[in-house]
Prior knowledge:
Elements: H1 3-6, E1 13-17, E2 33-35, E3 41-43, E4 49-50, H2 52-58, H3 61-66, E5 75-81, H4 87-98, E6 107-111, H5 121-135, E7 140-146, H6 156-170, E8 176-179, E9 183-184, H7 186-189, H8 195-210, E10 214-218, E11 234-235, E12 242-256, E13 264-265, E14 269-270, E15 277-288, E16 290-291, E17 296-297, E18 301-307, H9 316-321, E19 326-329, E20 332-335, E21 341-346, E22 349-354, H10 356-376, H11 385-389, E23 398-399, E24 404-405, E25 413-414, E26 420-422, E27 428-430, E28 450-451, H12 453-468
Parallel strand pairs: 4-21, 5-7, 5-8, 6-7, 8-10, 10-12, 12-20
Antiparallel strand pairs: 1-22, 2-3, 9-11, 12-15, 13-14, 16-17, 18-19, 21-22, 23-28, 24-25, 26-27
Amino acid sequence: MNIKNMKKLNIAIGVLLLSACFNENNQSTCTAPSYNSDGSFTQEEQIRCYTPLDMQGAYGLNVLYDMGLTGLGQTIVLIDSYGSLTAEEDLTVFHENFFPNKDMPEFQQIILGTPDYYEDWGGEIALDVQWAHAIAPDAAIHLIMAELGDGESDTIIAGAIEAITYVANNYPAGTVVSMSFGDPESAYTEGYYTDTELLEMEAALQLGIENGITFFASAGDYGSSSGEDEPSILYPASSAYVTAVGGTLLQYGWSWYPNSDSYTIDYVSYNPDYFNTNNNPMQRLETVWNEAWLGLATGGGISTLFDIPDWQAPVADKIYANSGSGRGIPDLAWSASVNGGVLIYDDGTWEVVGGTSSSSPQTAAFFSLMNQHLASEGMDYIGHLNPWLYQLNDGNAFNDILPVSQGTVLAGEQVSNQLFEYLDDGSLTYSDVAGYSTTQGWDLTTGFGSPRGKAFLDALVAVMSENDD
């Protein structure tokens, strides 16, 4: 296997383009695109998407906002590759659509090295910036652009080390950092990167942790395989210094009920039987993210680079039960699906995107709200989050993600992160690489689940207060 050819950056999946439409308040709305026979788009309510208001409601953030927790005084750092010349302009359009009565947040771009812009990173940057803002609308957003390459560059690890070291040395305690990139661990175990480079990366992350910074990384979008031909997870998500964020399919105000595994009609338009949904304003269901029509699912599994950290001992039995002895990821999860994706503005175009590249910046922004509260109470910032997470014993702190079967066909089996694949005859089956089961409590697909707003805050404050006594 050629590691260099297999290596990929798991950046945002901007697979659906959505032409801008506006409601009576002149705000962009989420209606779903489908292809006409001439290749143009029409708006049909088949593929679902979310605005910031939707996501805030789904995760109970309005209660936090009512407490004054909007990210004010906090900084969210986003590490991306060179890829956008319009990041600030795009954020302005997004902000004016969804937060017309609020001031623009502080926004800075820090460019490390010599820019060589990669077009594929434009949507990733728009996603990171705009959806960090969507969750923590008053937080400062700092975009660090480094040489992370286009997915084939030899300088990816060097650029990541440079960026993380810069953050560790230049940002104060309480800063949260999101990294929507990663390589399969085989890039390290099979020699594409050197042991020295891995140690340098770990040292940079450790320095940041020691300085009170919290790191988040996407768990990946290619299920249990991370794009390999065997179970594999991504680094830096697998680092013990990083909180790995998995993906869910959030159904908020609707529920999915597929009656066909085929997602297209003659590859011209979307099949309404696949995307069949039931509207229910009271609905809130969150399942593991595993989208058959895209061949994508949340990353998750067991590390071959790192042993089980001491703080992960409470779930070690679940790792051993899956024939592993290394660190298990993800630690928690957030909405990631494309059917149920988020709306972004990228260089003149509204797009619907998904992936754990969406989960990570939103989760980082959520924890900036946690840090704001801790500061207001005179408590220490979170710093290294993982040891706190694994001490939480409050069952209300998370939305536990359970196995669910929806509809009447295989695509609706949301029970693991084993990828689906279509055979030549159009029928749906599972890929050859085994996945991990979604179970009650912590598991190797969604970790503990997604945080539940105020309930999570209360549980976090309780465990941190206990350790201060």
